[in-house]
Write a structure and sequence with these properties.
Layout lengths: L1 H20 L28 H6 L4 E2 L2 E2 L1 H34 L14
Antiparallel strand pairs: 1-2
């Protein structure tokens, strides 16, 4: 019985080795596969909305998600939220100025290059 198990294990190891190094019918080793990368679905031509966030999916890596993909998406969302917050603050101050009777310009503030 022990001899049968050793022979069966040797056959399994040999067949897996042949399949990986190219001894099977495929004519070569296993094909190289490009790592799965994030294809940024966030639109560049308009602000991000709720549907864009709901459809955002990150590819899996060996231990979870690729940190660079997640960091890029989070920094983009953070920048857009900061821009919206600044615009809301400008509009609220313009509204408060209009209610007080003093004219306030509704121009979008110039952004500094960082």
């Amino acid at each position: 019985m022990f001899l049968f198990l050793v022979v069966a294990l040797a056959v399994v190891v040999a067949s897996v080795t042949l399949a990986v190094v190219g001894g099977g019918e495929g004519g070569g080793p296993l094909p190289e596969v490009m790592p799965e990368r994030l294809h940024d679905p966030l639109p560049l031509d308009r602000p991000v909305d709720r549907e864009d966030i709901d459809s955002l999916r990150f590819p899996l890596a060996a231990r979870g998600y690729r940190m660079s993909d997640v960091d890029d998406a989070l920094s983009r969302l953070g920048a857009e939220l900061a821009e919206r917050d600044a615009r809301i603050a400008d509009l609220e101050s313009a509204l408060a100025g209009a209610r007080a009777g003093s004219p306030v310009a509704l121009d979008k503030p110039e952004q500094e290059d960082r």
